[in-house]
Amino acid sequence: MLKDKVDKFKNGELSCEVELALHIIGGKWKPIILWRLKDNSTLRYGELKKTIKNITPKMLTEQLR
């Protein structure tokens, strides 16, 4: 998935590095996960899950990969 986004940048489909970064960290859950990790980067999976309401275990796992 990340490779596809980088390939789009290399092919000129994305106009700048900022647009590439927004594609990589975009979505519903990644900004929330990053916000939770910013103060405490050593949260375990279960601790992180408790801090994010309405996220399924499957979605959290996918977003952390």
UniProtKB/TrEMBL annotation:
Q: Which Pfam families does the UniProt entry name for this protein?
A: HxlR
**Which SUPFAM superfamilies is this protein grouped with?**
Winged helix' DNA-binding domain
Claim: Transcription is one of the keywords in the record: yes
Please identify the protein, giving its name as recorded.
Transcriptional regulator, HxlR family
Keyword annotations for this protein, in alphabetical order, are: DNA-binding, Transcription, Transcription regulation
Q: Which organism is it from?
A: Clostridium cavendishii DSM 21758
Domain named HTH hxlR-type: which ranges?
Answer: 16-65
Which GO MF term does the entry hold, naming one?
DNA binding
For whether the record's keyword set contains Repeat, the answer is no
What InterPro entries would the database entry show? Answer: HTH_HxlR (IPR002577), WH-like_DNA-bd_sf (IPR036388), WH_DNA-bd_sf (IPR036390)
